[in-house]
Hints:
By secondary structure, the protein is of the alpha+beta class. It has helices at 2-75, 91-106, 110-115, 134-140, 142-145, 148-156, and strands at 117-123, 129-131, 169-171, 178-184, 187-194.
Amino acid sequence: MRKKIKSVAVIALSFALTGTVLAGCGETQQFQQNTQKETQQDTKQDTKDDVTQSISQETQQDTTEKKEETEAIDKTEPIVEKYEDNFAVDSKAAKEFAEKVKDAVAKKDLEALAELTSFPVYVGLSNVGGVESKEDFLKLGAEKVFTDELLKSIEMSDIENLQPSRAGFSISDGGKANINFGVVDGVLAISGINY
């Protein structure tokens, strides 16, 4: 009988130990599942943080690049409007250009006039014709280019109602002497001086 009690005790103890082991395994398994979920959540949060940080850095970089581009544009010459042809030039732009020409002629400023000119350019002086470069134009000299007839014609010209043509615009008092300008490579430039 003592052996029987011992056997029952051993069996009961075995069941108790098995239950404890199984319970421990269940808790371990639950612990592992909880740890796995927390790790996944942490990974997701880290990924979100990384993405947010990456987007923030990209946005900051884009902003910096745009600021640098804007600063570079500010440091360069003003943006010049490009035209397809003479008929695309509005009357305000034509008048503004003509005012620059009139100012250069009134001051007999050959350098300023050259800056407004596209080369090669026709200069209708005797023994001149086509002038290939700015340097050649400046060599002509202000006294030769700014004749009394040209000075008078440009001074008396009406630039309020300049009308485009295929040849461009003409600054003149209606006489023979005039300065023509039009679209050359997308911008306004003097294309001929007639005497």
